[in-house]
Design a protein that fits this description.
Blueprint (H helix, E strand, L loop, with lengths): L4 H8 L3 H10 L6 E2 L5 E2 L4 H13 L4 H12 L5 H35 L15
Antiparallel strand pairs: 1-2
């Protein structure tokens, strides 16, 4: 027996509208319907939605997730496409790391310039 949309939503901790949205985008398979029109999802859709959530947490866009899932589902994406996608994503991540390192350095420098025992109006950061 499959899962109704509410059951899928509660097992994956997403709301029903998110599931419908993923369905419209083709990220999850279109479910079968009962005689009354209720959606019935296969049990493995739970794993698929959780995988999508994990990729989103890692910073992937839904468009990027669709490309990755396309390899598994539709075989439309060529190996070269995945290679290019991977190279681009690595570049984006490296750029984010560089930006975060700059921000960290700036905050460390800021922390050093702001002694704890000064009154706010004496703070060298606010009164250069």
């Amino acid at each position: 027996m499959g899962l109704r949309i509410g059951q899928l939503a509660s097992r994956t901790y997403v709301n029903k509208e998110t599931i419908r949205y993923y369905e419209r985008l083709g990220l999850i398979p279109i479910p079968s319907r009962t005689a009354k029109g209720y959606r019935i999802y296969k049990a493995q859709t739970v794993d698929r939605v959780n995988f999508i959530k994990k990729l989103k947490r890692l910073g992937f866009t839904l468009n990027e997730i669709d490309k990755l899932l396309g390899v598994v589902d539709r075989y439309e994406v060529k190996c070269r496409d995945i290679y290019d996608f991977t190279v681009n994503k690595i570049g984006e991540i490296q750029h984010k790391i560089e930006e975060l390192n700059k921000l960290e350095k700036m905050l460390v420098d800021l922390k050093k310039r702001c002694p704890e025992n000064k009154e706010i109006y004496e703070c060298p950061l606010l009164n250069p």
